[in-house]
Structure formats: structure tokens, C-alpha cells
Amino acid sequence: MSTLIVIPARYASTRYPGKALAPLRGATGQNKTLIHRSWEAAQAVRGVDRVVVATDDDRIRNEAEGFGAEVVMTSEACENGTERCAEALTALGEEFDIIVNLQGDAPLTPPWFVEELVAALKTHPAAEVATPVLRCDGRALNGFLEDRKAGRVGGTTAVFGAEGHALYFSKEVIPYTQGNGWSDHDQTPVFHHVGVYAYRPSALAAYPLWSAGPLEQLEGLEQLRFLEREKPIQCVEVDARSRQFWELNNPEDVPRIEAILNELGVV
User: Fold this and answer.
1) Helices (H), strands (E): how many in the chain?
2) Strand, helix or coil at 240?
3) What is the DSSP string of 147-183?
4) Cα distance between residue 261 and residue 32, in whole Å
5) pLDDT tens-digit readout, 225-258
6) pLDDT digits 0-9 by tens, 113-170
7) CA separation for the pair 4, 86 (Å, rounded)
8) Are the CB atoms for 254 and 22 separated by under 8 Å?
């Protein structure tokens, strides 16, 4: 099955304007922009036929083309990454069996997260959308709780049913656990939603035709549009294999990500 990875990236991020171009220092002291490191993460995924950066900003386009990425220019009217992926697919004018949205703020996404997501769609023919979830250890959960106490969004959490069908996603930490004390290596009942999606072309094409519902508007989470239309999302539990995963949501996340890059030896 043919697979396309689209990396949607915009300059006007609400919480962190210009974050796609934010420099991130690797283990050798070399700075690479967030979009560059996200593109490198996509390049590490096996079994992918094509990788493109989708943006509406010339600064991001120039940066991406400078390190060798293929770029598709999209409209400023795109409300989120899913809409940008849909527009990019139309602009490419080619057919793919699976389209992956690897968001441009997740440079620490391990390749097997995406590979297992694509495999899940291949083995579940009825599934239209799939997304990975990662069980939080105590260290990750405590970080999320600390961020919320400080008024920052540290990540998105997910709850799902016995068959892996998503029940809800939130920028709050759900389910409620604040009454517990968690050691770093504890396995917790909280799942971090990893900001990657795999879509069937039909699901991706339908998405921009729907208006954003109240939950999507309140949470600012694009995947809730599917749930509000009662379209199932398959959650795929992935294994971090002892790696820390973090997204760049706020300027305060930069040193966290750089520390993980250093720990992994990523140049």
C-alpha cells in the first residue's frame, strides 16, 4: 500500500509564533530548526513512498527547501494540520492508500510509532483514521501535571475503549489522577496522545467539508472533529522503548527537547 507522509507547518502558531523555525541544539552542539528535525524524523520511517512539507509561509518553504525537503504550498485558510494535509494531497494530484500527518512540532517521534500506525490501518480495513497513544510513566505524567499547574499545555491525553476506539482527547490530564503520587518509572493509567495521524483518503477528503464543532473549538484539537461527527478513531498503543517523547508546544519545551536529543545522541 502506498504511503505519503505530510508534515504540516505554519508560522503563526498561537502559543509559539514561528516555532517551526526555532533552533534545536543536538548532541554535538549543532542547531537545526524544528521543521528540519521533524523532516529527519519522517525520513527515518520505513516503507514510505514520499515525504512532503506542507506550509503557507515562504520562510518555512525556504528553510525546508534549503535542507532538501519537497514542499507543497497550501492556503492560509487551513484551520489545522488535517486540513493542510487534505489540501496538500489535492495539490499533489496523486493517489495514496494511506496519508500520514506527522505534525511539525514532534521531532522526537520514533519511526516505529508511524510504522505501527500504518500497519494498524493495513490490518484493520474498517478503520478510517488511526493515531498512536503512549502510556505515561510517572516522569511524563508529573511533567504534564506541573505544566497544567503553571497554566501551560504540556501535551494531549487520550481515553479509549476496550477495542481501542477513542472516547475523548483533551489538553487537560485525563483521567483524573492528581490525588496520586507517581514515581518516575511508575506505569500510570494516563495515555499521551502522540500527534500523528494516518488517514484513508476518503476520511481525509471529507474532513474539510465539516465545520468545527464546539469540542474542537474549546480544546483546539483537530481530531475531535471526527469524534463529533461520530467517526471512529482507532487508538494504537505504542511502546516508547525507554525513550522520552515530547512535543514542542511552548518556548519552555525547547530545553526539554534538547536534553532528550542529547540523551539520544542525535546530532
Assistant:
1) 9, 12
2) coil
3) HHHTT----EEEEE-TTSBEEEEESS-SS--TTS---
4) 11
5) 999 999 989 999 999 888 877 888 888 899 999 9
6) 999 999 999 888 888 999 999 999 998 899 999 988 898 887 899 999 999 999 999 9
7) 12
8) yes
